Amino acid sequence: MLVLLATTAACSAFAQTIYKTIGPDGKPVYSDKPPTNPASKYSVIGAQPGQAAQPGQTPASGKFDPDVEKAVIEVMATDDLVQQTESLCARARPDSSEKFSKAATNWKKRNARLLTHQRRVLLEAFSAGERQAIEAKVRARTSEALAASSKHGPYSKSPWCEESLAQINSGSMDVASKPHISSPLVNYRPKAP
Question: Which pTM was predicted?
Answer without folding.
Answer: 0.67
